[in-house]
Specification:
- By secondary structure, this protein is mainly alpha-helical.
- Helix content is about 75%, strand content about 0%.
- The protein has helices spanning about 1-20, 35-65, 70-95, 110-155, 165-180, 185-195, 200-215, 220-230, 235-255, 260-270, 275-285, 295-305.
- It is elongated, with a radius of gyration of 29 Å.
Length: about 325
């Protein structure tokens, strides 16, 4: 049996060499490596997260329509998702397009050589075809079973676009982080996913790990501050102060981010620091595109604040 397997393998290798021989001089597309491979993986990660956020925005609209969310909670959650979605779209646009495969070399001067290669291929193919036919069923059965198993494993949990669904993605991340909890990028992806799925306490743990591994990570501080505001009553001064601290740390890296400036203002509003609230919201408004829904929302909040009737957030 071992000798048969060895002979069969040698014959298969010979068949592959013979049939591939005419193509040897063609330029093959390079296998992505290094930075190119990393960009390909980033494209996949960004697409997964984009789809997760789009699903989350759709669910928020449904929750609002069915009365499961108050307008203020809806707007806060929508701001977070849209802000992150904008960053993802900007990053996708900034990634360089994949380079096209190199064109094959000119055929001039190579035609006669190609004819000789084809003739040699035909002769050798006739020699091996009889033997190859005898082992076809054996090899085909083995490869077919393995291929079917691989396709089944890859296809399970995939959506109509061939991308993993959010639950599958989170399950993989959790397995990955269980083996290596100090994986910074993995913790960031987990935090984003948990926020989109509204698994708030899991998100808090993930973002806490992110800032433990990288204290300057502004995204981790932003989401930790947001979670503080979402989970504590408006009159909880201690939590509001902790949220404010996270937002101020995040703004060191991104001082003009309108979402962080808005939520910093919310924390200051709960601390009854109204002049500082006005300043923060004004900066947020100035960094939003005029006329957009977000800009109008911040504008109305500023008008309420300045009229002496601060909004309840």
């Amino acid at each position: 049996m071992i000798a048969f397997s060895i002979i069969a393998g040698l014959i298969l290798i010979l068949v592959i060499i013979v049939l591939a021989y005419p193509l040897w001089n063609r330029t093959a597309a390079p296998i992505p490596m290094g930075l190119e491979a990393s960009m390909d993986q980033e494209r996949i990660d960004l697409e997964i997260e984009k789809q997760t956020l789009l699903n989350s925005l759709t669910e928020l609209d449904l929750d609002l329509a069915q009365g499961r969310l108050t307008p203020s909670d809806y707007q806060r959650l929508k701001d977070v998702d849209e802000n992150r979605l904008g960053r993802i779209l900007a990053r996708q646009d900034s990634l360089p397009a994949k380079s096209a495969p190199a064109s094959p070399p000119p055929r001039s001067g190579l035609q006669s050589h190609a004819v000789m290669k084809w003739a040699g291929s035909a002769v050798l193919s006739l020699v091996v075809i009889g033997t190859a036919a005898g082992i076809y069923e054996y090899v085909h059965g083995k490869i077919g079973l393995e291929a079917q198993k691989l396709i089944a494993e890859q296809g399970s949990g995939a959506g109509s676009q061939g991308m993993p669904n959010p639950a599958e993605m989170v399950a993989r991340l959790e397995k990955r982080l269980k083996e290596n909890p100090n994986d910074l990028q993995g913790q960031i992806m987990a935090g984003r996913s948990y926020m989109s799925l509204q698994r708030v306490e899991d998100a808090r743990k993930a973002w806490s790990k992110v800032v433990e591994l990288d204290y300057g990570n502004y995204e981790g501080h932003f989401f930790l501050g947001l979670i503080q505001l979402q989970t504590a009553p408006p009159d909880d001064q201690k939590n509001s102060q902790e949220a404010l601290s996270h937002f101020e740390t995040a703004l060191v890296k991104v001082p003009r981010d309108p979402a962080i400036l808005w939520y910093k203002g919310v924390a200051l509003l709960r601390l009854k620091e109204y002049p500082l609230t006005d300043k923060s919201w004004t900066e947020a408004f100035q960094n939003l595109q005029p006329g957009t829904e977000d800009a109008e929302f911040v504008k109305k909040a500023l008008q309420s604040l300045r009229s002496g009737s601060p909004p309840v957030l």
